[in-house]
Design goal:
alpha/beta, Rossmann fold, Dihydrodipicolinate Reductase, domain 2, 2 domains, 6-stranded parallel beta sheet, 10 helices, globular, binds nicotinamide-adenine-dinucleotide
C-alpha cells in the first residue's frame, strides 16, 4: 500500500474546471458551492443509508468549498408512495420506482447505491456502463466474484473519467483520519498490535424478526459483512497494509427467528404472528490476522454485545506509542507517546475538533463536536473532489474488493475450524 491519502481538499478545487463529460450543465445553487457546475446525484434506496447519504449530499456544499455543487436529482425505491415521501422529506427533486430508469436519466451524473448487498453489483455495473460515477455502500458486494467484476468495471470506467468509490464512512471520522495521519507520520513507530472490535446488541432478543440482514441471499453474511467489513477496512487504512491471512471463528447464536410482518428497514421490522424462518448468516465473528510488517491483529464483530450500541473500538500499539478510539466517543482520540519519560506519562485525550484536524476546517469552533452523520458529509465532500479531479478515490472499488477477500478468507477459515487462511492482495488497492 502507498502513503495515505489525506481527506481530499482544496487542492482539488483547481481541477474543478475540467469536470469531465458527465458533470456538466446548468449550475444550481448549493450554499458555498453556488457558482460551481453541478454534480447531479441519483440515489437507490431511501431508508437508513438513504437518509444518511441524503444528509451528506445536502450538506457538503454548504459546509465545504467544493469544486462541484451536489444536487439531489432523483431518488429510487420500489414503493411509489414511500419513495415520493422520502423524496419530499430528504429534498430530492424526482422519484423513480425502477433503478434501471434512474441510471439512464440524463439529469443524473452519479449513482449512489444504498440498497442491501445483493443488488450492489448489478446496479453498479449497469451505472458504470451507462457512463455514471458510482458510490456504493459497504460491503462492496456479497461475493468476491461480484467485487472483482465491479473492480474491473471501475478501472475501465476510470479511463473514461468516471469515478467509483466504496462507502466506508468510518474513514471520515476526523479522529480516525487523524489516527491515520499520526501512524503515517511514524508517531507510533513499528506497529505490534492492531486491536479492533465492532460491538452492537440489537439481536440479543431472540424474538427480534428475521430482516434482510439475517438472510445470506440478501446480505451475503451477517455481523461479518455488516460490521466486520468496516473494521477490516479501518485496520488496513490505519496501518497502510493489507492483511496477509486470518484465523477465524463464527457463530449463529439464534438460528430461527420470527418472519417480518411489515416493512423492514435498517435494523428493525415488525414481526408477523407465529411463523419463523431460518437465520442463514453469522451472528458474530472473531478472528486474528497477520500484517506483512509482522503486526498481529485481532477482530471482533458482533450483534450480541449486550449494552453496546455502536461501539467501534480501535487500539494500535507501536514501539513508540499507542492510539485508541471508540466510535461512541467519536470526537476523541487517546494517544500515548512512549518516548516521553515514564514519570509523568500516560494516555492523553486529544479532542479532535481543531481547525487543522482532518475535515474540521469547515465546521464549528474547537470543542463543538461532530457526530455520525458528519461522516457522510465528509464522504460526499471527498467524492466530489475525486470526481472534479478525475482521480481514483479512496476507498476505491479495489479497496472494497480487498476487504471482500478478507471476509471470504474469514468464512473459509471458520469453515475449517480456524485454520490459518492466506489472502491474496488486490494489486491496485491503496
Ligand atoms: N456505512 C454505514 O455505516 C452503514 C450502515 C448501515 C448500512 N450500511 C449499508 O448500506 C446498505 C443499505 O443498508 P440500510 O441499512 O440502508 O438498509 P435499509 O433496509 O434501511 O434500506 C434499504 C433500502 O434499499 C431499498 N431497496 C432494496 N432493494 C431495492 C431494489 N432492488 N431497488 C430499489 N430499492 C431497493 C429498500 O426499499 C430500502 O429503501 C447495505 O449495503 C448496508 O450494509 C452501511
Amino acid at each position: 500500500m502507498g502513503q495515505p491519502q489525506q481527506p481530499e481538499g482544496a487542492e482539488a478545487d483547481a481541477a474543478a474546471a475540467g469536470t469531465g463529460t458527465v458533470a456538466t450543465g446548468a449550475a444550481a445553487a448549493a450554499g458555498a458551492t453556488a457558482s460551481r457546475p453541478p454534480l447531479r446525484v441519483g440515489m437507490v434506496g431511501y431508508a437508513f443509508m438513504g437518509a444518511a447519504h441524503s444528509q451528506g449530499w445536502r450538506t457538503a456544499g454548504r459546509v465545504f468549498d467544493l469544486p462541484l455543487a451536489p444536487e439531489l436529482a432523483a431518488i429510487c425505491g420500489r414503493d411509489a408512495d414511500a419513495v415520493r415521501a422520502a423524496a419530499d422529506r430528504h429534498g430530492w427533486a424526482a422519484a423513480e420506482t425502477d433503478w434501471r430508469a434512474l441510471i439512464t436519466r440524463d439529469d443524473v451524473d452519479l449513482v449512489d447505491i444504498c440498497t442491501p448487498g445483493d443488488s450492489h453489483a448489478e446496479i453498479a455495473l449497469a451505472a458504470l456502463a451507462a457512463g455514471k460515477h458510482v458510490l456504493c455502500e459497504k460491503p462492496l458486494a456479497n461475493t468476491v466474484a461480484e467485487a472483482e467484476a465491479m473492480t474491473r468495471a471501475a478501472e475501465r470506467a476510470l479511463a473514461r473519467g468516471q469515478i467509483a468509490m466504496a462507502g466506508f464512512n468510518y474513514r471520515r471520522v476526523p479522529a480516525t483520519a487523524l489516527a491515520r495521519r499520526m501512524v503515517a507520520e511514524g508517531r507510533l513507530g513499528r506497529l505490534r498490535h492492531v486491536r479492533v472490535a465492532y460491538l452492537q446488541d440489537w439481536l440479543v432478543d431472540p424474538e427480534a424478526p428475521l430482516t434482510w440482514r439475517l438472510r445470506r441471499e440478501q446480505a451475503g453474511s451477517g455481523a461479518l459483512g455488516d460490521l466486520g467489513a468496516h473494521i477490516v477496512d479501518l485496520a488496513q487504512y490505519l496501518t497502510g497494509e493489507h492483511l496477509a491471512g486470518v484465523s477465524a471463528l463464527t457463530e449463529t447464536f439464534v438460528r430461527e427467528r420470527p418472519l417480518t410482518g411489515g416493512a423492514a428497514r435498517g435494523l428493525s421490522a415488525v414481526s408477523a404472528d407465529g411463523t419463523t424462518g431460518r437465520v442463514t448468516v453469522d451472528d458474530a465473528a472473531v478472528f486474528t490476522g497477520r500484517f506483512p510488517s509482522g503486526a498481529l491483529a485481532t477482530f471482533e464483530a458482533t450483534r450480541y454485545a449486550t449494552g453496546r450500541k455502536n461501539a467501534l473500538r480501535i487500539e494500535l500499539n507501536g514501539e513508540r506509542g499507542s492510539l485508541a478510539f471508540d466510535l461512541e466517543r467519536l470526537n476523541e482520540l487517546s494517544y500515548h507517546d512512549a518516548t516521553e519519560p515514564d514519570s509523568h506519562n500516560g494516555f492523553r485525550r486529544i479532542l479532535v475538533t481543531e481547525p487543522d484536524h482532518p475535515y474540521l476546517d469547515g465546521w464549528w469552533p474547537p470543542g463543538h463536536g461532530l457526530g455520525y452523520e458528519h461522516t457522510f458529509v465528509h464522504q460526499a465532500r471527498d467524492l466530489v473532489h475525486a470526481v472534479a479531479a478525475g482521480r481514483s478515490p479512496e476507498p476505491s472499488f479495489a479497496d472494497g474488493l480487498q476487504v471482500q477477500r478478507v471476509l471470504a478468507a474469514v468464512e473459509e477459515s471458520a469453515g475449517k475450524n480456524a485454520v490459518y487462511t492466506p489472502i491474496t492482495a488486490v494489486p491496485n488497492a491503496a
